[in-house]
Amino acid sequence: MGKRDRGKRVNQEMLRRYEEYLREQERSDSTVEAYLRCLRAFEQFLGGETLNKEALIRWKEVLASQYAARTVNTMLAAVNGFVAFAGCPQFRVRPLKIQRELFAKPERELSRAEYMRLVGAADRGGNRRLSLVLQTICATGIRVSELQFITVEAVRVGYAQVNCKGKRRTVFLPQKLRRLIARYTRAQKKTAGAVFTTRSGRPLDRSNIWRDMKGLCEQAGVQPGKVFPHNLRHLFARTYYSIEKDLSRLADILGHTDVSTTRIYTAESGNVHARQLERMGLVIT
Predict the structure, then answer these.
(1) Could you tell me if 167 and 26 are in contact, meaning their C-beta atoms sit under 8 angstroms apart?
(2) In 3-state terms, what secondary structure has residue 269?
(3) Is there a contact between 43 and 10 (Cβ–Cβ < 8 Å)?
(4) How far apart are CA 20 and CA 85, in angstroms?
(5) Cα–Cα 20 to 30 A to 39, which of 74, 205, 249, 276?
(6) In DSSP terms, which residues pair with 172 in a beta bridge?
(7) Pairwise CA distance, residues 216 & 230, whole Å
(8) Is the distance from CB of 103 to CB of 276 less than 8 angstroms?
(9) What is the pLDDT of residue 40?
(10) Residue spans of alpha helices (H) in the chain
């Protein structure tokens, strides 16, 4: 084995330095946390073994047997970035090839009617904060991690300045949403800062919102597999595209660098496509 192929041992100090590097690159907190979870799992898989190409290939095979292809590629991206940082770029492995799905899975797609039932369930349960969180994400298309930028000041001027993944963009707030949130903040006696906070005053995070949304499923009659914050963003994207048919503009609104990512958000279900084929009326006899 040549010097170039000799590996290194992964340890906590290396992971700490890599975390510092990721933060210097202005990666989001959620990305840093996800990468570190992957790397700790990889460290455990190695079990003290030296980092090398063969170990990464075995790790890739294990992941492929346990997770969906997109999840595998996310985890491989974390490890590939780490080995390059560690001075071993020759150990990087190729991601799995994924054929783009033409249709969204109906069992995972949140419909407009289901969204409305979730909002109604939150209001009937007296959880006005959750009702407005759902409506804010779905009416603007923001990521759940960007909810912290919806402030009293943003509601007052009509738009929020969002910083995410090293990019800054303006998110406009619909007039009706602004009125609803303004009424809520007056009731909460909030005059500045993030609108949606915990009792201690900290901005709501993904886990808070996820848990509260799951609590609505039974009363709203919506399958739990459809109820998670990012599905609200998908519903916004599908609704916008059905009206405007402008993929590039939608990519800008969502904060996507690559339009191919936006296409995933606007994919119709196979059932919709089947109905479109039926309406074409091209079967004659």
Answers:
(1) no
(2) strand
(3) yes
(4) 11
(5) 205
(6) 159
(7) 16
(8) no
(9) 92
(10) 12-24, 29-46, 53-66, 69-85, 112-124, 128-140, 152-157, 175-187, 206-214, 217-220, 229-244, 247-254, 259-265, 270-280
Is 234 catalytic? The answer is no
Does 233 participate in catalysis according to the annotation?
yes
Per residue in 3-59, pLDDT tens? 444 557 788 888 999 999 998 888 888 889 999 999 999 999 988 888 889 999 999
Active-site pick, 143, 190, 226, 234 = 143
AA identity, residue 198: T
Measured at the CA of 79, the angle between CA 78 and CA 82, to 5 degrees, comes to 90
Active site residue 265: yes
Residue 163 CA to residue 169 CA, distance in Å, equals 7
Residue 273 annotated to the active site: no
State which H helix or E strand residue 162 sits in: strand 159-164
> Residue holding tokens 């799951």?
214
Q: Of 117, 165, 206, 263, which is the active-site residue?
A: 165
Residue 158's closest CA among 133, 181, 129?
A: 181
